[in-house]
Write a structure and sequence with these properties.
6-stranded parallel beta sheet, 2 domains, Dihydrodipicolinate Reductase, domain 2, alpha/beta, Rossmann fold, about 375 residues
Length: about 375
């Protein structure tokens, strides 16, 4: 499958660096509104720098949409109109209305849409799901999922877009948590939430031309919610960029027979810990499993980063005529839940979730995706 990348920002490098390890995909071109960024990325990875229109008019099969969230819908719609499949960074679109239009257009054209995050296909996500499916902790009753930190301005040279509508901690980081949770527990039934803006200004401390300047967030920077799942589980989900330091695990699931502790769902690997009936934690490491070995010792050290896994799995799905595991339908459900978190906080009411996708099939033979 021939792939054209649109959006040559920070995340594009890891997609292109990882692409060679997977079979069935070939990165052939990249484009960006900044021509110099496209040319620099193309030179580093031995592909062609093109304009967006050139990519859409070319013989590529799929557009990898790595633009900012506010641009996801417009570019993905253009790609569908040009007869290309789409795999997009999260969120699927800035709103569920846009996402519905995109998925309907793709279905009418006989094309597929896939979406990050694909971290749930990594070693840690697969292990956590296997333990739950095997009954290791019984029926999941409750749990917690918390994404907390100080935001993006300390490392990103131009972070304002992270704080615009369609982003923020809920829509930017929430997809990792909700995708992992729904892959293990199935779909969410309803949401109740509260939200706030911690500070009216954010100051950029990262090195670059904007260092020392400030901007105002346009979306909540803290949200706390209760998630009701169709399975019967009730979980707390919190997302905040107003926290200096904390000691709360990223995710825990508690069932009738024991408890499960999961690592950061923005990581493909790391340790899944199991407590059987209250016994001491048993560590289930990922280093010896496919897509679990630590391979990313820079920028975000000590992580297993296999971005491109979902894209390769989508190429395999297209070859077999099935829906990809990191599907548009799954991403739509996650987006609907996260949008409901913000809407519930604004309206101070419980929000019912209309979409109810099936859990994706477990990725039982991940090594088959390797080149």
């Amino acid at each position: 499958m021939r792939i054209g990348v649109v959006g040559c920002g920070s995340i594009s490098g890891i997609y292109l660096a990882n692409a060679h390890m997977f079979r069935g995909i070939e990165m052939v071109a990249c484009a960006d509104i900044r021509r110099d960024a496209a040319e620099a990325l193309a030179a580093r990875h031995g592909i062609r720098a093109m304009g967006v229109e050139e990519i859409l008019a070319s013989d590529i099969d799929l557009v990898l949409n790595l633009t900012v969230p506010a641009a996801h819908h417009a570019l993905s719609m253009r790609a569908i109109a040009a007869g290309k499949h789409v795999f997009t960074e999260k969120p699927l679109c800035a709103t569920t209305a846009q996402a519905r239009e995109l998925l309907d257009a793709a279905a009418a054209a006989g094309l597929q849409v896939g979406s990050a995050p694909d971290t749930f296909l990594g070693a840690a996500g697969r292990e956590a799901r296997a333990l739950v499916d095997a009954g290791a902790v019984g029926q999941i009753v409750t749990g917690t999922a918390f994404m907390m930190g100080r935001g993006m301005e300390h490392w990103h040279p131009n972070p304002a877009f992270y704080y615009q509508a369609g982003a923020g901690p809920v829509l930017d980081m929430g997809p990792y948590y909700l995708t992992m949770l729904t892959s293990i527990l199935g779909p969410v039934r309803a949401v109740t939430a509260l939200a706030s803006v911690g500070s009216g200004t954010r100051t950029i401390t990262a090195e670059g031309p904007l260092q020392g300047t400030s901007f105002a967030p346009e979306t909540p920077t803290t949200a706390l919610s209760l998630l009701e799942f169709h399975s019967g589980a009730v979980l707390t989900f919190g997302a905040s960029w107003d926290v200096f330091r904390h000691s709360i695990p990223p995710m825990e699931l508690h069932g009738t027979e024991g408890s499960l502790r999961l690592p950061d769902p923005d990581n493909f690997g790391d340790i899944v810990a199991l407590s059987r009936g209250g016994a001491a934690w048993e560590d289930h490491a990922s280093e010896d499993s496919a897509f679990g070995r630590t391979n990313y010792p820079f920028d975000a050290p000590n992580r297993a980063n296999y971005r491109c896994l979902g894209l390769a799995e989508m190429a395999d799905a297209l070859a077999q005529g099935r829906e990809p595991r990191a599907s548009g339908a799954r991403a739509f459900h996650v987006l609907e839940v996260l949008e409901a978190v913000l809407l519930s906080a604004e309206c101070r009411t419980r929000i019912e979730i209309s979409s109810r996708p099936d859990r994706p099939a477990p990725l039982d033979r991940p090594e088959e995706l390797l080149a």
